[in-house]
Amino acid sequence: MAEESVLTDDFLRQLINVGEVDILVGLPTYNNARTVGPVIEAIRAGIVKSFPRERAVIIDADGGSQDGTPDLVTGASINDVRHASNLYALRTLHSISTQYSDTPASGTALRTILAAAELLRARACAVISPDSTTIEPEWIPRLLRPISHEDFDLVTPVYRRHKFEGLLMRNLLYPMTRAIYGRRLREPYASEFGFSGRLGSQFLGQDVWRHEASRTGTEISLTIAAITGGYRLCQSFLGPKIHTDRSSSDLVPAMRQTVGTLFWSLEATFPAWSTSADLQTVPTHGCEYEVTQEPVRVNRKRLYEMFCSGVGELAPVFSSILSAGTLAELQRMASLSEGDFRYPAELWVRTVYEFAASYHKSVISRDHIIQAMAPLYRGRMFTFLGENRDASAEEIENSVEMLCHEFERLKPYLLEIWNGRE
Amino acid sequence: MSLTQDALWHKDAVIYQVHVRTFSDSNGDGVGDFQGLAQRLDYLQELGINAIWLMPFFPSPLRDDGYDISDYESVHPAYGTLEDFKKFLAGAHERGIRVIIEMVLNHTSDQHPWFQESRSSQNNPRRDWYVWSETDTRYRGTRIIFVDTEMSNWAWDPISKSYYWHRFFSHQPDLNYDNPAVREQMWNVMKFWLEIGVDAFRLDAVPYLVEREGTSCENLPETHAILKELRRKVDQEFPGRMLLAEANQWPADLRPYFGDGDEFHMAFHFPLMPRMFMGLKLEDRKPITEIMQQTPEIPASCQWCLFLRNHDELTLEMVTDMERDYMYDVYAGSKSMRLNLGIRRRLAPLLDNDRRRIELMNGMLMSLPGTPIIYYGDEIGMGDNIYLGDRNGVRTPMQWSGGWNGGFSSADPESLYSPLLLNPVYGYQAVNVLSQKRTEHSLLSWMQRIIRVRRSTRVFGAGSIEFLYPANHRVLAYVRQLGNETVLVVNNVSSSAQAVELDLRRYKGNILIEMFGRNIFPRVGDLPYLLTMGPYQFYWFRLRRI
Q1: How crowded is the C-beta side of B90, counted as CA atoms within 13 Å?
Q2: Among B65, B102, B157, B204, the one annotated catalytic
């Protein structure tokens, strides 16, 4: 039976009307009516001001919104029937929408955007998160210009973040991706990024889409594909990024989407990362990574408690994932008082690598492996927050850098356990 | 064939614009003349046009290609005599071709006897025929039109030791229309030519007739009053004659020139032309439809005059700065192609000599609401010479054949008023009437065909227009309608093949008949009407309910 197309007939009809474009901006949406208005305004202004002569389209890949999000996106078109009140556009700007499914899946949304980009032969593309309320029109050229003008293939963002935001990125995703693949990319899993048409086409053609993991977290797969495929990477400073409030119950899905995909990607790219040793700096446009110091309330005690209870309850699971030494050390730490508790960097890296190897070997259900990691990550967060409670931006950077070195130093350990120990 | 008695003839006209100097030289002196032009009338009749617009042919120092007139009631000796003109006029009329001549109302040459008298003394009776001032500070709100050459609208006259007003070159002093004697004299000039039999005037630079302090000195009510008076006299004494306004203005500012059908019969639609070129390059109909949306309704007896190119630069006055920058970049990469606020190039070089684009642009010219004007030589795809000064690069001799001087003149090539085009792409040996007449699929043959189809129905000249706005923005589609006749026009302004769905539900049951090949297309039903179109392709369909 033929594989079902990601493009509906109605969407295809819309794409026919758009025709070939130079610039494509994709929005993966799902019930974002509360925030998408200003985002779409900024995208439109960014395109009209920075790319007035280029053929451009905004594409909304919607996961079944019930709040009118697609109408808000399509209402941003500028053409000879609908004029933008505050903008003058030299040419038509299409803003179209398609519903790829009844349930949201970021991977499917990205696939829809990639498919549209390939059909429209877009040269430079960007994906923008519909809840990026801090977006400015300048984000559009910052993500697209390195592609359209300097021939880069992937532009990942650099944000100005609060020092206690993006902890998963700082404690796992960034340092591990950097150690494994040898690129200093601050946001390997980004909700905003730019990519070239050729990278998009190459990625669309990979067989990643057949796997369950492709439903979510494909953004990090795209980054890894760009690295391992030898594409030109750069970073672009976008400015402040504020995440909408997330409860602690969001952690497991977030880890599934990011850490799970990262672990999953390690298998297919093993030949590339197992032999590469170089660490390369990635060119950055605009400012370097920035941290702000406003106070943020974090319930550290709760993190500690969740670590302790997790280590106790999941001991049978951990015994099939972790080495005996690592597990013993974690159990010892769980017995410590809150004041004495500390999850050192080396042990954290060993833990992560052992989880990655176990994921590779599927010692138990892969989803359970990722779920089991959540309490341990909370323990690491407890330590990171405690160690950096009064740290300056520079001191935090040093702390992250030290963790990166630890991931790099222990990379041979990952290689050792990857196929070695059962 | 003779002229039809139709007061609205201008609505169904296809006009051919030519300068007598450029067309055909009968006496071998290197300059085109009226006898030569008369000898080429059969060619114009075969082409299918039914009106000729002649650029100025009056005695002149020719410092502005004849728009600097030194005698309004005669013919420049280089072009022949008044008798020659009359014979040409009779020949045109015999072939059903009307003749439109230039009338430069706003200014004269500084060599005109009127100005010589005016400057001769403060007390001369003609002193007040021009606009004089002791200072150069009056009318400061007035823009300078020829920004590349003029620093001010005032020029110092060393003879009368005062300043005179000029909106164009400083050797073209503006007449003073506040003086009743001037108004009377200019009507006498027009009457002179109307009595000879000319069918229409193209009135040059009409927005600038009157000056008033604190205004832009353009489009003033006093100017309109003068023009209405001229129209009244024309209608009263010479019914059926036509006035065409040259006013490079936005459509809303142009609208008053039609009055209530009591001022001009026709006016050039200047802003449309650059937007047709822009739409083609952008591969987007938006510039065209937007300017058409801004085009006001005009009285039923009036008409827009449409053109792709003419004797001047492709003017970019009526576009935004962003659009102008774009047009310069895509159509005038070399600085030498630019002049004032425009691009001094002919149609074929502007379109990279791409036959498909030339045909599409002519297709739109012939089907949008208005009377089309074809600039001489564009029907065979003549090129230009950007190395000649001013706008002379688009005013080179007509290329009739691959022979001596391209068949234009028997003079020594060095004595021609302008060098012929010689390059291998656009030179007269490659592009000429004779060779194209021998080929059924030449541009000339195609132009004959499209003019014939255009003139086969009155719907293009007098019909209403309704844009369809299909979702595919690369397709410009509109319906022209007059009485029971309906024509659907679909243009693909892009360089790639397109599929387009047209909402034709209101024409359900009609059969589409393609007007060039007369082939039948499927009947219109309930579903969107799907058309596939090749790059730069266009269709004209007659809708028939049979």
Answers
A1: 6
A2: B204
User: How is residue B136 written in tokens?
Assistant: 């150069």
Interface test with A, best of B275, B278, B284 (most A CBs within 10 A): B284
Query: Which residue of chain A is at minimal alpha-carbon distance from B291?
Result: A80
Q: Choose the closest CB to B282 out of A13, A91, A94.
A: A91
**B466 reaches A (C-beta below 8 A):** no
Q: Is B475 helix (H, G, I), strand (E, B) or coil?
A: strand
Does residue A294 surpass a pLDDT of 70?
Answer: no
Domain boundaries, chain B: 9-106+177-455, 113-165, 463-544
- CB spacing of A19 vs B322 below 8 angstroms: no
Closest approach of A79 to chain B, Cα-based (Å): 7
Average pLDDT, chain A: 90
CATH number of B463-544: 2.60.40.1180
**pLDDT band, very low/low/confident/very high, at B2 (cuts 50, 70, 90):** low
Instruction: List chain A residues with CB under 8 Å of B284.
Output: 55, 91-92
Contacts of A13 in chain B (CB under 8 A): 471, 501
**Minimum-distance CB partner of B322 among A13, A52, A92:** A52
Query: Is residue A3 domain-resident?
Result: no
Q: How far is B501 from chain A (nearest CA, A)?
A: 9
Domain that holds residue A163: 9-292
Q: What is the DSSP string of A111-151?
A: HHHHHHHHHTT-SEEEE--TT-TT--TTHHHHHHHHHHTT-
Question: Which residue matches tokens 């069918």?
Answer: B199
Predicted pLDDT of residue A295: 61
Give A-chain residues touching B323 at CB under 8 angstroms: 90
Q: Which helix (H) or strand (E) holds B299?
A: none
Give burial (CB, 10 Å; 0-12/13-18/19+) of B154. Answer: buried
Residue A243 has pLDDT above 70, yes or no: no
Please check whether residues A40 and A158 belong to one and the same domain: yes
> Do the domain assignments include residue A1?
no
Percent of chain A with pLDDT over 90: 69
Task: State in words which class domain B9-106+177-455 has.
Answer: alpha beta
Biggest CA-to-CA distance, chain A: 70
The whole-angstrom separation of Cα A11 and Cα A8 is: 5
Contact B226, B177 (CB under 8 A): yes
